[in-house]
Amino acid sequence: MEYIRQTIGSDKLIGIFDVPQTLRNRKVEVIILPAENDDGKTKGKACRIGCYPELPELPDSFFDPLPEEDLQAWGL
């Protein structure tokens, strides 16, 4: 999967995103990943959080600690 990862000044994002006050005038990391429709075709525009009217319930196991291998993969 192709993606873009870049560190830029948050001032370049104002007008594109609602940049929280705590992130303004700071360097931020931006990661852009493709979004896909159910049919596998790439969308032209990503959906914002909260755009899904009904999300499935998360199982209780979702909140279990990650295995050590996963934590290391994330650099934690």
Question: Short description, anyone?
Answer:
The chain is mainly beta. Helix content is 8%, strand content 16%. The model has no long low-confidence stretch (mean pLDDT 79).
Topology readout:
Layout (H helix, E strand, L loop, with lengths): L3 E6 L17 E6 L35 H6 L3
Antiparallel strand pairs: 1-2
Describe the structure.
There is one protein chain. The two termini are 23 Å apart. The chain is mainly beta. It has a domain of 44 residues. The model has no long low-confidence stretch (mean pLDDT 79). It contains one helix and two strands, in the order ββα. 8% of the residues lie in helices and 16% in strands. The chain has a two-stranded antiparallel sheet with strand order 1-2.
Features:
76 residues, mainly beta, two-stranded antiparallel ribbon, extended
**What count of helical segments does DSSP give?**
1
Shape: extended
The rounded Rg comes to 17 Å
Strand percentage lies at: 15-25%
* Number of strand elements: 2
